[in-house]
Amino acid sequence: VGPGSRVGPLAFTGDFIEIGAELGHGATATVYDCRRVLTGDQLAVKVIDVRRLRRLEDHETALRRLEVEVQALREATHPRCLGLTDIYRSKRWIFLVMERLSGGELFNQIERRKRLSEPEARHVFQQVCEGLAFLHSRKIAHRDVKPENILVASSSEMPANEGGGVRLEVKLADYGLSKLMGSGSMAMSMVGTPQYWAPEVLASGGGSAYDHRADLWSLGVTLYVMLRGQYPFKGERQNQ
């Protein structure tokens, strides 16, 4: 990041400008709308405050997860995965520039419409399967597959001979909890969203291990939520 760069509003002189919209923020990062000056492409940039990240109690884990997220974004070169366009680093900031998808989360579609029809859900499910299979082929376990982490790129009318309804084009996103699964390596952390946890993830609380195949359970729960508009399992506590 050169001397012409600034944050809040964010501008990359000669490359990116920030056009004023904050898309969301968390404890250590803020996501902005931006566009590439030379081409006019609409993009999104995740601005990570490294100084604030280092002040977290479990900062070593947070830094490791950030590096895995960056690597997963670099590897996510499949049409059904949200990928990294550019990365910029300074002493304090990391800028992850990504595609900007205007359709919001799949979760919002389900919430607004209560549920998807079977043809609509099938079309989405196939795309997510393709994206997830690609990540697994790159030895990446997503570990947080759910409708909130599936982004809608576009929507159109589905032809009657395909079942009718709305055709959603989607991409799998948010690799913040991903894990790189090397030869023989296993995961042992209870991360992700409890409603989508596989049994082996729950068992990891007792010292058991799991691998990328736990994503398939989460994928199945996601399909159920698309079709029914509710979780398949109910419980007031984590162990239920």
From TrEMBL:
Coiled-coil residues: none
SMART domains: S_TKc (SM00220)
GO MF annotation terms: ATP binding; protein serine/threonine kinase activity
Domain of life: Eukaryota
Pfam family, one: Pkinase
InterPro entries: Kinase-like_dom_sf, Prot_kinase_dom, Protein_kinase_ATP_BS, Ser/Thr_kinase_AS
Keywords: ATP-binding, Kinase, Nucleotide-binding, Serine/threonine-protein kinase, Transferase
Keyword Repressor: no
Binding site for ATP: K46
Domain Protein kinase, first and last residues per copy: 17-240
Record family assignment: Belongs to the protein kinase superfamily.
Protein name: Protein kinase domain-containing protein
